[in-house]
């Protein structure tokens, strides 16, 4: 008797509207999500129409974006320019501001028909990683945990599930996993005392986690996103995490250590990822899809938990909560 593996793909598209080729790809049952990038975005109305056209084909797809704030913010024209998370910590009422920021971000993302932003970043700012830097809330693990927890409360209040990244922490490794294969030489005990703290303390509030394309050689010789040790033994076993595990983009250089796109999706799903992201490379996405079909994967039932809960509210700018959140961030000079 063959037991099919649970898992699915998240893919992307090239333009602002669906092509016939896009539609064909999105009809494949192994595809369970789509992420949009800056190239797919004009303004709020266009994004709403794009999302509606996607849902007309596959109403069950999870639609995502990276809308962290600071330099990682895909939705710009017609949206509030959010601060980098590191800027929140310098305020006396930082937790309140973090909660307002999380609510405001999630409200705008949900209002255009998307389900989630891959946020918050739980990496610590060790003043070592340029790719993390101000995306992190803090370098102190307890303060980072408090601020990220407040941000998650805001997201949840707006109707959005939270995805913590990049497990077990990308803030120490200096190389950028978009273009290299970073390593973090610290021991598991050192990681437990620092970078793992936010993931451990917030595991009950996180609906999803995204592992890092970083190798921690004292723990395993595979990057965390391809490691059963990290995903099964530590994340699911020790931390008791029962949410969705999204791979980071399998087209990134940090993922190439395991081979081509077919090898990467097989390694990610076999290690325990519920969904593998294959972005910015349609040929790679098609190769990964073929591999997923050969593996006879079935989407994990956990994925449905990532659906947004607030699509109908397009009048959010008239809500008292919106005026309060925007006013607080303006008063702190965190937004214009």
From TrEMBL:
InterPro entries: Beta_hexosaminidase_bac, GH, Glyco_hydro_3_AS, Glyco_hydro_3_N, Glyco_hydro_3_N_sf, NagZ_Beta-hexosaminidase. Pathway: Cell wall biogenesis; peptidoglycan recycling. The record marks 176 as: Important for catalytic activity. Its main location: cytoplasm. The keyword DNA repair does not apply. GO terms for molecular function: beta-N-acetylhexosaminidase activity. It comes from Pseudomonas putida (strain ATCC 47054 / DSM 6125 / CFBP 8728 / NCIMB 11950 / KT2440). Substrate binds at residues 66, 74, 135, 165-166. It is found in: Cytoplasm. Transmembrane segments: none annotated. It catalyses: Hydrolysis of terminal non-reducing N-acetyl-D-hexosamine residues in N-acetyl-beta-D-hexosaminides. It comes from the Bacteria. GO terms for cellular component: cytoplasm. The active site is at 178 (proton donor/acceptor), 248 (nucleophile). It is an enzyme of class 3 (hydrolase). This is Beta-hexosaminidase. One of its GO terms (biological process) is cell wall organization. Residues 19-284 form the Glycoside hydrolase family 3 N-terminal domain. Belongs to the glycosyl hydrolase 3 family. NagZ subfamily. The lineage of its organism: Bacteria, Pseudomonadati, Pseudomonadota, Gammaproteobacteria, Pseudomonadales. It holds the Pfam family Glyco_hydro_3. Plays a role in peptidoglycan recycling by cleaving the terminal beta-1,4-linked N-acetylglucosamine (GlcNAc) from peptide-linked peptidoglycan fragments, giving rise to free GlcNAc, anhydro-N-acetylmuramic acid and anhydro-N-acetylmuramic acid-linked peptides. Keywords: Cell cycle, Cell division, Cell shape, Cell wall biogenesis/degradation, Cytoplasm, Glycosidase, Hydrolase, Peptidoglycan synthesis. Its EC number is 3.2.1.52.
């Amino acid at each position: 008797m063959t037991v099919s593996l649970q898992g699915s793909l998240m893919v992307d598209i090239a333009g602002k509207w669906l092509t016939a080729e896009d539609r064909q790809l999105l009809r494949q049952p192994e595809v369970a999500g789509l992420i949009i990038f800056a190239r797919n975005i004009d303004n709020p109305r266009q994004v709403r129409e794009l999302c509606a056209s996607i849902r007309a084909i596959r109403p069950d797809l999870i639609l995502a974006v990276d809308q962290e704030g600071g330099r990682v913010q895909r939705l710009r024209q017609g949206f509030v320019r959010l601060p980098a998370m590191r800027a929140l910590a310098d305020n006396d009422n930082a937790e309140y501001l973090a909660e307002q920021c999380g609510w405001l971000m999630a409200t705008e993302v949900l209002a255009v028909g998307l389900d989630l932003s891959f946020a918050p970043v739980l990496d610590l700012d060790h003043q070592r990683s340029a790719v993390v830097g101000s995306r992190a809330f803090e370098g102190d693990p307890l303060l980072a945990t408090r601020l990220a927890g407040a941000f998650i409360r805001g997201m949840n209040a707006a109707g959005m599930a939270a995805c913590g990244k990049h497990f077990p922490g990308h803030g120490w490794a200096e190389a950028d996993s978009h273009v290299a294969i970073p390593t973090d030489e610290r021991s598991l005990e050192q990681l437990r005392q620092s970078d793992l703290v936010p993931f451990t303390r917030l595991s009950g509030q996180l609906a999803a986690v995204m592992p890092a394309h970083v190798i921690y050689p004292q723990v395993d010789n595979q990057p965390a996103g391809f490691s059963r040790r990290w995903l099964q033994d530590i994340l699911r076993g020790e931390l008791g995490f029962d949410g969705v595990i999204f791979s980071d983009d399998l087209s990134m250089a940090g993922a190439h250590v395991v081979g081509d796109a077919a090898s990467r999706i097989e390694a990610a799903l076999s290690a325990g990822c519920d969904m593998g992201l294959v972005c910015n490379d349609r040929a790679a996405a098609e190769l990964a899809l073929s591999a997923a079909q050969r593996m006879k994967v079935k989407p994990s039932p956990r994925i449905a938990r990532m659906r947004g809960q607030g699509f109908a509210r397009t009048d959010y700018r008239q809500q008292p909560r919106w005026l309060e959140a925007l006013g607080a961030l303006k008063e702190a000079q965190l937004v214009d």
